Each structure stands twice: as structure tokens, then as C-alpha cells.
From TrEMBL:
The lineage of its organism: Bacteria, Bacillati, Actinomycetota, Actinomycetes, Kitasatosporales. It is found in: Cell membrane. Keywords: Cell membrane, Hydrolase, Membrane, Metal-binding, Metalloprotease, Protease, Transmembrane, Transmembrane helix, Zinc. This is Site-2 protease family protein. Belongs to the peptidase M50B family. Its main location: membrane. It comes from Streptomyces anandii. The chain crosses the membrane at residues 16-35, 42-61, 90-115, 127-150, 162-182, 203-220. One of its GO terms (molecular function) is peptidase activity. It is a multi-pass membrane protein. Signal peptide: none annotated. InterPro entries: Metallopeptidase_M50B, Rip2-like. Its cofactor is Zn(2+). GO terms for biological process: proteolysis. PANTHER family: ZINC METALLOPROTEASE MJ0611-RELATED (PTHR35864), ZINC METALLOPROTEASE YWHC-RELATED (PTHR35864:SF1).
Amino acid sequence: MTTATSRRSDRRVSPVFVGILAVTAVTGWATWTGFAQQPGVAVFLFVTAAWIVSLCLHEYAHARTALHSGDITIGAKGYLTLNPLKYTHALLSIVLPVLFVIMGGIGLPGGAVFIERGRIRGRWRHSLISAAGPLTNVLFAIVCTAPFWLHALDGVPRDFRFALAFLALLQVTAAILNFLPVPGLDGYGVIEPWLSYNVKRQVEPFAPFGLLFVFALLWVPSLNNAFFDLIDAVLRPLGIGALDQYCGQELYRFWQGTNEFCSVSR
């Protein structure tokens, strides 16, 4: 009998994702070589494309883990192709996270692949499916910060270093926010299988508003400062200081004009 995941096309990497990778590679090269006439534009495109790649990998991790946990419908829904247009809410999954990066430099998580939880047995499997996404952001952050904590920055162009630092910041913020035990976020999905039925029933109506609740809290100045202090405390031991973080975000926001301080920093 043919299952929903037996067709090779269900698992073939989407041309859309390949195109996003190509944009990441080309703009990364332009940032590295200084080829672009306006380096800020190259950094903007490089970081944005790389951020979308990480969003695709985040959702793919959820889907792949669900497949191996028993949801054989994942392939037929297109979630294994890495095509962001196949997600349940393309607006939440891609557009809003990119807007949050542009507006506030925060890697807020998006939604989502639809997983048929009824096909999955075992609380640990349910928790692992939810944890797989933010763990991908952790892995992405490790890759972005590797040149810093390996002290391998010799020969790395300044603008590319700043871009990597900002991209790492986005991955760390996404991982931390996603692991919050707030309904609608992956952190709640990790603990939900271990909660009583009554607790889950009471919390369920709030799940659609969890992301908005977190976003609203981040607008509170004291909480926003505390959050970014935490991000800084994570990034500094990895070799990314405040200068790299600041200049990475300033370079990304090219429409605000050139920051002379960052342009002369080495």
C-alpha cells in the first residue's frame, strides 16, 4: 500500500527554497567581497534570505521529526520540500518574522506546519517534535558564531562579520522566545503532553494569542532591556560583543543612512 510519504516528489527540495539559498549565497558573496555599491543593501538581502532559510529549516525539523514519530501525512502536505509557501500560514511563517526583524531586530518565531498529533504515540515524541524547531535555531546560531568563538576572524571582512553577528542574534532570540512556555509557542508544546487534561483545556483558548502576547511584552521598555541583556549574556561568551551586534543591526537597516561609527570600526 502506498503511504502519503512514499512519493519522491513529496521529499524533493523545492525550487523556491533553492532560489532562497541562491540569494543567500550571492548576497553573502557580495557582502564578503564588497562588490555591492551599497554594502547595507547586500547585508540586508543576505541576512533576510539567511533568516528565511533558517525559518524553513525550523519548520522542516518539526515536520521531519513528526514523520519519524508516526505522522505519515506530512509528506503529502509538502512540508518536507522546504517550500515556505506550503506552510499552514505562510503569512505567519515568513512575512511576519521578516517584518519583526526589520522593525525591531528580533527573531520572533512564526507558525507552522500542521501535524496530526493523533497519529503520534508517546509524550516524549510530542515534546521532541515541538523542540526540534528551536533546536534548529540553536544549531544555526552555533554555525553563525563559530568564527567568533573559534577565533577565526582573521581575513573576514568587517561587513560580513557584522552581518554574521546580527544573524546570530536573530537565531538566539528566536530560540529563546520559541522555548518560552507560552501557549502557541514551541516551549509550551514541549511541556503540554505532560500537563493534565484540565490544564490543557483551560489554556487552549489562549494559544492563538500567545505570540501577540510575547510581542506586546517586548514593547515594555524594562522587559525589552532585560531581554536584550539576556541575549548579550549569551552572545558575549561566544565572542560576539556589543559592537558587532550593534553595527550588524545598523548595517542591516541601510535605509537609515550610514553609521560613521561602524564604518570606521575594526
